[in-house]
Amino acid sequence: MALSDPEGILASPLTIINRRDERLDIKAITDIVSQKQVEQIVVGLPLSMDGSLSRQAEKVKEFTQKLREHTQVPVEYRDERLTTVLAERLMQAVDTKKTGKKARHDAQAAALILQGYLDEKHEPELT
Question: What is the value of pTM for the model shown?
């Protein structure tokens, strides 16, 4: 998971929620949404390289639908293709510990997804 600053300009990794049980996972997310006063949820959608819905993307959409039933906060999808690869490459230069490397990459990937959303939201409109 990642959060933005209050102005919605900069995304930073927050935490990892290790999937255990759907009910507990949704509770963990909604607890953070409540504690951090989140106003928008952005969900990474793992599309296939050709842009079609992968099996994992279908699972994400199913989970997201259940999440929507437990929060009033708007939820949007963001294409997450290659974000984990990019996060791994970015972190290789600073990542010297072997333990927890995947978790840190996932948190960084979440921040990259959110940052892309924030950048797109703040782009000036061309008229």
Answer: 0.73
